[in-house]
């Protein structure tokens, strides 16, 4: 007997047209047998998401959208914006009560206007029970009070991306797992003319990821468990002093980098170590057949977890991508049907595979997806949802934490100290004032 899963898996290698054809057949069977919500008559949806970083991810996603439409008759228009523009557009739509039916954003986005989000408790409860449970961080991001307000669709693992040959030339056989060794590696890379570099501009993904890591690794926090501001501490000072030393070893100009700069610099061999998802590797692999330089970079690069600091445990900050529906939509059942469709394992797996692991899973059953064992250079992305701290870390993950991220409080503090715009103490005091205005 040929199952829907085997039909889909067997078609993946046959090319895009075959995937579309077989996926459409599977989707039709799903709509008849497994769909929890009957879409409203005449329903059509609009979804705003962040612009893709991996072309094959977008291709796989749009194939799913087309299959959903073919199976249910619900047209879904997909709009794309830069990663930094999704949050303000969603906030405006929530305030005025009109706009796209769904938003696919970052981190705590739904908590900026939790009362404006569709209640998806029944859906997320069902998916969690069916697929082995959600990652703890996914539950934090997806829930407000006693209800689910968003589906934690996937994560982007933010990892150390590095060139193996440069690391070896600098005198290291493996990526250091401690702060001292990591700093020495960065200094040594500068010494051989192959420096690193990480974004210190308003980079919602890569910039926020590394500055929160360095703060938390030293035991510094923006707020405590009661959401009291505690950023002004010896631990924060130590984190900024360490960050300044890293910055001095890097290529000039990182204070103005957004989320795209490090990708370009790494592939241009301007930097040999940075932080990113696996999209740099995916881009190099995609171009490898036509470009020998890209083939060489793909072969020579790898990914690693972030070093452990005085905190004594992983303090990584991976991006959670929540998908939320707005209460003003005319078609709430269609919204929830679409959300369910995306998360069913039969095609959630090939979608993440199409993303070349730039997206990683948020429920436990994803640990068994076959593509994780196909390429050892992607394995570090697998546990992102389980290793990450959430936006508030010790504190809540609600509206205040979301606003602190959107206002780049921690990122600007680190940038001010590293670039010399402010002294370490001056940068901390600015961040403290900003945080206290939010956490009142």
TrEMBL record:
Main location as per UniProt: periplasm
InterPro entries listed in its UniProt record: Bact_solute-bd_prot1 (IPR050490), SBP (IPR006059), TAT_signal (IPR006311)
Pfam families: SBP_bac_8 (PF13416)
Gene3D superfamilies per record: Periplasmic binding protein-like II
Keywords: Signal, Transport
Subcellular location: Periplasm
Xref: SUPFAM superfamilies: Periplasmic binding protein-like II
Family: Belongs to the bacterial solute-binding protein 1 family.
The name this protein goes by in its record: ABC transporter substrate-binding protein
Species in which this protein is naturally found: Paralimibaculum aggregatum
UniProt lineage: Bacteria, Pseudomonadati, Pseudomonadota, Alphaproteobacteria, Rhodobacterales
């Amino acid at each position: 007997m040929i199952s829907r899963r085997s039909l889909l898996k067997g078609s993946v290698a046959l090319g895009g047209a075959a995937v579309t054809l077989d996926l459409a057949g599977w989707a039709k069977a799903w709509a008849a047998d497994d769909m929890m919500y009957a879409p409203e008559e005449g329903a059509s949806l609009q979804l705003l998401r962040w612009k893709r970083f991996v072309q094959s991810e977008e291709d796989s996603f749009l194939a799913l959208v087309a299959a959903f439409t073919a199976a249910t008759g619900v047209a879904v228009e997909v709009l794309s914006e830069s990663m930094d523009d999704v949050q303000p557009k969603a906030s405006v739509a929530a305030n005025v009560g009109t706009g796209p039916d769904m938003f696919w954003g970052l981190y705590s986005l739904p908590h900026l206007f939790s009362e404006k989000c569709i209640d998806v408790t029944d859906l997320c409860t069902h998916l969690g029970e069916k697929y082995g449970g959600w990652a703890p961080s996914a539950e934090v991001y997806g829930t407000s009070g006693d209800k689910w307000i968003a589906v934690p669709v996937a994560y982007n693992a933010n990892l150390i991306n590095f060139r193996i040959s440069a690391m070896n030339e600098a005198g290291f056989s493996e990526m250091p797992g401690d702060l001292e060794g990591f700093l020495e590696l960065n200094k040594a890379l500068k010494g051989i003319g192959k420096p690193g570099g990480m974004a210190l501009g308003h980079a919602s993904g890569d910039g926020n990821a590394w500055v929160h890591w360095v703060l938390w690794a030293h035991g510094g926090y923006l707020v405590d468990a009661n959401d009291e501001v505690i950023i002004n501490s010896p631990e924060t000072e130590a984190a900024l002093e360490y960050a300044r030393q890293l910055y001095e070893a890097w290529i000039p100009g990182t204070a103005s980098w957004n989320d795209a700069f490090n990708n370009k610099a790494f592939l241009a061999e301007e930097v040999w170590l940075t932080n990113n998802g696996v999209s740099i590797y995916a881009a190099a692999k995609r171009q490898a057949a036509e470009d020998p330089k890209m083939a060489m970079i793909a072969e020579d690069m790898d990914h690693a977890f972030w070093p452990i600091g005085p905190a004594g445990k992983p303090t990584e900050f991976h991006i959670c991508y929540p998908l939320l529906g707005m209460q003003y939509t005319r078609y709430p059942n269609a919204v929830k049907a679409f959300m369910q469709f995306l998360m069913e394992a039969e095609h959630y797996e090939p979608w993440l595979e199409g993303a070349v692991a730039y997206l990683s899973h948020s429920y436990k059953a994803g640990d068994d997806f076959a593509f994780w064992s196909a390429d050892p250079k992607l394995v570090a992305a697998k546990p992102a949802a389980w290793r990450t701290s959430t936006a508030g870390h010790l504190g809540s993950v609600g509206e205040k934490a979301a606003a602190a991220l959107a206002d780049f409080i921690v990122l600007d503090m680190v940038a001010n100290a590293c670039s010399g715009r402010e002294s370490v103490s001056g940068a901390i005091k600015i961040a403290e004032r900003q945080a206290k205005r939010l956490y009142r």
